[in-house]
Every structure is written in structure tokens, then in C-alpha cells.
Design brief:
The structure is a homodimer.
Chain A (H helix, E strand, L loop, with lengths): L5 H9 L3 H13 L2 H10 L6 E6 L6 H15 L1 E2 L2 E2 L3 E6 L7 H14 L5 E6 L8 H14 L4 E6 L4 H8 L3 E6 L4 H4 L3 H7 L2 E4 L7 H14 L9 E3 L8 H18 L1 H29 L2 H12 L5 H9 L1
Parallel strand pairs in A: 1-6, 1-7, 4-5, 4-6, 7-8, 8-9
Antiparallel strand pairs in A: 2-3
Helix pairs in contact in A: 1-2, 2-3, 2-6, 4-11, 13-14
């Protein structure tokens, strides 16, 4: 029988138990006190280097990720980060239940399920305050603490939430297609801001030149930057461009290490994560505050016209 | 020059100054300390009886509201509530700027702008934590405190937010059309839950019988209730059905007063409003907590792997 103790699970995950690893991810997904205990352990380990992949549904991200897994394991290194296993989180925030996520899993599993060097996990929701924006960084920490030096987080969609999750990575890859305009128009500025690398997938299709020109002129508008996101072309279905993408990720990592951007970004990310956790903890307290004698006493005062909600809230908060 | 003091403004609004009234609404819309001062006054007066009107865009709510204003002012009473003026709030949460709201104003203004007995105000957003879900109840309180015994709040759309705002009323009217299925499918359950009265507007169109049957069978599924929402038919363009709608609103009010539902609902609404204000106040404090020396010290501990976000948040909250 598998343990329920986070420390035992982590020890087992570190020696290769996928069951223990999966259970740890479930723990941080579900939240609650046992998650706190797990968090106390996983956040004290070196974090994985995280590659985020995002883009509209149908852009071919899953196939591209598949290709990256295969050729990444052959490489075994991203600059000075060496690895013999890869952790992948597939996130679909738009799917409240796990239907879509499971489907994604299955498609990938065909190739990698039996591969001991790959851990793939789908996450669609979290039964806890803070939702995926807290669960994903926690799950990435589980991977790091379990001995994955490199992790990939793939999100489906280009809404603000998907982009936020993907951009909480060390290198963010935005996947587009020829004729990308329509599918990404809604959040063009957001995508442009988070992209470290642009990929035009399905490069065998018509319209690639226009798409590249569009992206270049958007990048031009953004002005001078120390790192100008390269625009790569891939055809995930036959694997062409995958090696160049790994090279670009490695270059971006090297740039970040040399420039100090990596630690700046991790600091910013840590600041945001802490703010989110703070928000979730406080929300939980509000739920507590919104019950009981003191609360009802203020409700009575309000109904009697003896107070206003702002004054009553101040009193409850004291 | 008009005063900036809430007490002076309220006194002026009570003696009929529309400029003072409009400024008070602007105060509660914009939030901040002056809003707190205003809130301390307006929540100490008797609240208006509030009729909420909601439904999908294009259902004819504005025309129907126009008709209600005209015939309401002729009636001058809703059961024991007598009035010689009506306050109307038109809410469009989907419009981040006031474009749509202003348009709505203009259309209505043609008929009522010069009418001293009508105060119409559009609200589209609030530059403050809590947004419209706080600003609308505050604005309704302004109307009540300024001497409006009856107020109408009209929201455009059937999303959860629109429905929440409209249902924070004493009587909630859901406006549909023949063939309503498509436009309301997304939030059918939500609408069914909040509706005290259903109106099938554009009753001169085909499909009214099917729409009524659909609504009836949905209501049947809801089981026995002390108040079963009546289903009325109106043609707002020629005004037919308006009088019956006023009668239904009056009946619902009478039912609520007799059954005690009015005070039960007002208590529940007060409880929710206080919880929302509490949430907004606490959110403001989180922003404060997410800066400064203590916060950066915790960020440093996190980066050094000496803590996890949950423990750090606990420390900051202490």
C-alpha cells in the first residue's frame, strides 16, 4: 500500500516511483492541509527549469510537445542542465472536468506511456481556492523536488489565464500557425509580451511568409530588447524544426543565465506566487469571517439602518 | 457651485436636486474615502423597493422599462408603496467603457429626460475593488435615501454577473422572447432560480406558445413553491401587457410582505453584500501586504529554498 505521508512519497518519487509522484501531484492539486505539508518539502528543493508552451487550440502543440520529448531525451541536456527524464504538465483551464485533459493524455500516451523517462500529467481544475494558478506552480515544484531538472508545461488556449500559466515558465514558447491572425487576435499584446520564442507550426501550409512578416513587425513595434524572440518554423507532423527549437530554448536559457534575467524573472514569479497564495489564504479567512455571531450582529445592525457595509466590514476585520 | 460634502448633497437630493443626486451616485461609483462617508449616510435610510429587470440583449428590456415608467407614474403606487418619482439604473457589465451605456441613456432620454419625475442613470463600470456588484447596491441606496420609494435596475445580458445584479432586487423580472431558447440556454438554471416573474416580450411574434410551454415545464421541474413565477406576455412596442406586469409586480410584493419573504430575502442580500464588501476590503489589504520589507524578506526566503509560499503567507498574515 502506498503511503500518504508527503515525505515518504517524495523519497519514493526521487527513487523513481511514478505512483508516488502521481500521488504528490494529486495532493497539491487537491489542496488542503496535506498539500501544505507537501509544499513545505517541495519548495525546499531546487526548482526545475520550466519551458512553457502555449497557443490556440489546434495549433499542433501536443504533436510538437511529443516531438520535443522524443528529441529532448536523445539530447539529454539543455545547456548545463542534464536530464534523463522529462516531466510534462498539460493544462486545459477551459475544461472544468477532466474530459479534454484525459483525451489529451491518451493521445500522448500512445507514444510515451510506456516510457520510463517521461512523466505526463493532465490538470484541468483544482478543488481549492486559487485554482490552477496555484496548482500548476506547486505541481512543477513536485517535479523539481522529485528529480526532474527540466519540465514542460503546455496550456491550451490564448486567454489571459492560459497565457499567465504558460508564462510562469523560464522560457515561454508561443505556437502559432500560418494565418494565425484570427485565432490570436484577441490577446495579441498579451502573447507578444510573454513570448520568448515564437513557433510557426504547420510551416508547410500557405501563408507562412505573411505570418512571419506580421510577427516581425509586431516585434519591431515593441522596440529594442536584450532578447528579441526568434521566430521558428516547425512541421510537428514530420518533426522538422524540432532540433532548431531545442537550440533556441537552450540559447534563451543561456541568455537568461548570462544576463541575470533568470534570477530576475524567478524573483518576480516568486513575488506573484506569494501574492496569489496570500490572496487565497485571505479568501479562506473571509469565508470564516462571513459566519457566526459577530457577522450576524453586523447584519442585524445593517438591517436596522444602524450601520453601512463598509463600517461593518471594518469592525469585523478588527 | 455644487458641494462635495455627502451630507449636503444628500440634503439637496432630498429636496429634488438632480445634480446633487447624480453626484452622489458618481461618488459611490468611484469608491474611495468620500464614498465611505456617503455610505455612512445612505445606509441609514429606508431602502427603496427594487424591481430588477434582466434578459438577453435585444429582448426589448429598454422599451419595456420605458413603458413601465410611463404607466408607473400614472399609477403612483405599488401596493402600499406610493411614489411620485422613479429611479432607474441601467447596468451593462459587458461594456467596460460607457459607450453602450450612453447610447442606452440617449434612447431613453428622448422620452424621459425632461421628466422631473424620472431619474435615469447608466452604470457600466466602477474604478474600484468590487466593481458593479458593490456599486449597484450603493447606488440603489442613494436612490432610497434621496426619497425614491421605488427603483428599477435593468441589466443587459444573462451571464452570471448580470443575473446576480438583477437578482439583488426585491422583485426580479426575467424578460424573454418567443424562441428564447438559444439566447438563454447558457444560464437557464440561473435565470429560473432568480425569476419572480417571467415576461415573454414581443408576444406578437411566432413561437410564443412553445416558449410558454417550455417555461411552464421548467417551472414544473422546480417543484412546489409558495410563489410560482407567473408568465406574462407583453408587446413593449405598443405597450400591451404593461399594466398586467405592474399588477404582477404588486402581487409579488404583497406575497413577499405577507409571507415574510421580503425580510428573509433582504437579510440574505445584506449578508451577501457585507461579504462582498469584506472581500473588497481584504483584497485592498492584500495589495498593501504585497509590498515592503516583510514581503521581500519572505520572497528572499522562498528563493533560497528556506520556505514555501503557504508558510510565508501565514507569516505575513500574522
Amino acid at each position: 500500500m502506498i503511503s500518504k505521508d508527503p515525505a515518504e512519497l517524495l523519497a519514493a518519487a526521487r527513487t523513481g516511483s511514478r505512483t508516488a509522484l502521481a500521488r504528490l501531484v494529486t495532493m497539491v492539486e487537491s489542496g488542503g492541509p496535506v498539500m501544505r505539508a507537501a509544499a513545505a518539502l517541495i519548495y525546499r528543493s531546487e526548482p526545475a527549469y520550466v519551458v512553457g508552451i502555449t497557443g490556440p487550440p489546434g495549433a499542433g502543440k501536443s504533436t510538437l510537445t511529443d516531438r520535443l520529448i522524443t528529441s529532448g531525451l536523445v539530447r539529454g541536456a539543455l545547456g548545463d542542465v542534464t536530464f534523463d527524464q522529462l516531466g510534462i504538465l498539460c493544462i486545459d483551464p477551459s475544461s472544468p472536468f477532466t474530459g479534454g485533459a484525459i483525451l489529451g493524455d491518451r493521445i500522448r500516451m500512445q507514444e510515451h506511456a510506456t516510457n520510463d523517462h517521461v512523466f505526463i500529467r493532465s490538470m484541468a481544475t483544482r478543488g481549492n481556492l486559487g485554482g490552477l494558478s496555484l496548482a500548476v506552480p506547486d505541481a512543477l515544484r513536485v517535479l523539481g523536488a522529485s528529480g526532474f531538472p527540466l519540465a514542460v508545461v503546455e496550456t491550451v488556449g490564448v486567454g489571459q489565464m492560459e497565457v499567465d500559466i504558460a508564462s510562469a515558465a523560464d522560457t515561454t514558447v508561443v505556437v502559432t500557425n500560418p494565418g494565425w491572425g484570427d485565432s490570436m487576435q484577441a490577446n495579441k499584446a498579451g502573447l507578444l509580451e510573454v513570448a520568448d520564442i515564437f513557433v510557426i507550426n504547420k510551416a508547410d501550409r500557405a501563408g507562412i511568409r505573411e505570418t512571419r512578416r506580421d510577427l516581425e513587425s509586431m516585434l519591431d513595434l515593441g522596440g529594442e530588447r536584450a532578447w528579441r524572440p526568434p521566430i521558428l518554423e516547425t512541421t510537428a507532423t514530420d518533426g522538422s524544426g524540432t532540433e532548431a527549437l531545442w537550440d533556441a530554448i537552450a540559447e534563451h536559457r543561456a541568455h537568461q543565465v548570462t544576463s541575470g534575467d533568470l534570477s530576475t524573472r524567478r524573483r518576480e514569479r516568486t513575488r506573484r506566487e506569494l501574492a496569489k497564495v496570500l490572496g487565497a489564504q485571505v479568501s479562506a479567512r473571509i469565508v470564516d469571517l462571513s459566519h457566526g455571531e459577530d457577522y450576524e450582529a453586523q447584519v442585524n445592525r445593517l438591517l436596522a439602518g444602524e450601520s453601512d457595509p463598509y463600517s461593518s466590514a471594518e469592525i469585523l476585520l478588527r
